[in-house]
Specification:
This protein is an alpha/beta fold. The chain has a single domain (2-232), classed as 4-Layer Sandwich (Metallo-beta-lactamase, Chain A), CATH 3.60.15. 24% of the residues lie in helices and 23% in strands. It has helices at 45-53, 71-74, 77-81, 91-99, 101-113, 192-198, 222-232; strands at residues 2-4, 7-11, 25-29, 34-37, 61-65, 86-90, 130-132, 138-140, 143-149, 158-163, 168-173, 209-212. The strands form two sheets. Strands 1-2-3-4-5-6-7 form a seven-stranded mixed sheet. α4 (91-99) packs across α5 (101-113). The longest helix is centred in the middle third of the chain and has 13 residues, at 101-113. The two termini are 23 Å apart. The mean pLDDT is 97. Bound molecules: fe (ii) ion (FE2).
């Protein structure tokens, strides 16, 4: 599904274009190179692959940039690695995969208890092909993508910022959603104090398109939704959760 010039939605359980447990999976086509933002849950990655093929030759896809290592965003990573596609992980999220598997499993089980995953689904751990550092520029053909580290939802989560010819685009994973909702969870790694400390990093980006990992996305005035989250987090009440 085309969202913007060279930006496509290729996975989403909520929209109904891939497995119902997939987060939104975005494809960025930079011309001679292409990447995904997140991989989906991995229950039926072929649906995502088929959607990718509607827009680009599959061979053009070189990498997946993960926002964080919750299962709905990264469970399908191994399915793409089998095809030679590199999976890049924010550095602190990669550390969780090696040093804090218990936390990941606890968060996963709490989400599974809430119906976020089917009872017979097991999270597939994977080895990152590379780690990404904050402010490292990621070149995708004609585009340059800047990772921005924000804590609160998961300790090492990266939002990805892309200034295209016509829009400023922010892929937010589970950090910020439309109408200023946040992704605070009752599980290891999620922390309201950290949300409050880091949200200001998004204040001056003049975002047009706000492309989160769930719920509705917008292609105009995205900064208003982000500013709402910043405002919500400046007040004493716990902000609305997505
Ligand atoms: Fe998440």
């Amino acid at each position: 599904m085309k969202l913007l010039e060279n930006i496509y939605l290729v996975g989403s359980g909520e929209i109904g274009i891939s497995n119902k447990y997939d987060c939104h999976v975005y494809l960025i086509d930079g011309g001679d190179d292409a990447v995904l933002i997140d991989s989906g849950v991995g229950i039926d990655s072929n649906q995502i692959i088929n959607n990718i093929k509607e827009h680009i030759p599959y061979e053009k896809l070189s990498r997946i940039l993960l926002t964080h290592v919750h299962a709905d965003h990264c469970g399908g990573a191994v399915d793409f690695q089998k095809n030679g596609i590199k999976v890049l992980v924010p550095d602190e999220e990669a550390q969780l995969l090696t040093n804090a598997r218990g936390d990941i499993i606890e968060a996963f089980k709490l989400a599974q208890n809430a119906g976020a995953y089917p009872n017979d689904y097991n999270f597939k751990f994977f080895e990152p092909d590379n780690v990404i550092l904050e402010n490292e520029k990621i070149i995708v053909g004609k585009y340059e993508i800047t990772p921005i580290h924000l804590r609160g939802h998961s300790p090492g989560l990266f939002c990805y910022y892309l200034k295209s010819e016509s829009e400023n685009i922010l892929f937010t994973g589970d950090q910020v959603f439309i109408n200023g909702a946040i992704g605070l969870l009752n599980c290891p790694g999620s922390d309201l104090n950290e949300y409050r400390q880091d949200i200001g990093k998004l204040k001056d980006l003049s975002v047009d398109a706000l492309l989160p990992g769930h719920r509705l996305f917008v292609v105009k005035n995205g900064q208003q939704h982000i500013n709402q989250a910043i405002s919500n987090l400046s007040q004493v009440f716990v902000p609305a959760i997505f």
